[in-house]
Amino acid sequence: DIIEQKDREIKQRLYFILESIAINTRNIEATVFLVNRLEIEKDKDILVSILLRMGELYEPDHIDVSPIIKLTENKNSHIRRYAFEALTNSEYRVEEFLEAKLRVNQNNEDVAAILWALTFVGTSKSIVTIKKFLKSRKPAINGNASTTLAFISLRENIPLESINKELNFSMETLMIFESRISLLTRRPLFIT
Length: 192
Description:
The protein is an all-alpha fold. It is 62% helix and 0% strand. It has helices at 8-25, 28-40, 44-51, 66-71, 77-86, 94-104, 108-121, 127-131, 139-155, 160-167, 171-180.
């Protein structure tokens, strides 16, 4: 009942508190509640505030993530961006979904957001599709493609020297990436 507040700021704070509890306790019921609220809420700022940290919430396969998937088609680019990232900690076939979106999407903001989301869940299956974006003239796109490929390569245990040669990252940068790989990996396989 308290979530039915009319005051947007109060509502955003309540969702933030609920997400914090869900993240810290790994409470599946809270996660289900938040996913379901995506179908009810209509205000773009409220939707963004719900989606913002949803990528940190584990979504097992029994949770219906269709409300998140639906928001990847929203007309608001901020909502789409956070919806792509919100899927990155679910058992839904996220990598396949994101790669398929990447193959057909012409919107530069979406492409950058999808590449960023693949940084969390990408594997060698996505490399060929991602490599096509290294040639982009848009820095946000080719930069995200390089970073995503570096993280996928690290996850796939490709030697740093090979990544350095292929993607032109300094060894120092790659070692920093390597130290952060656990923070930028969201898949059920890595949930403890």
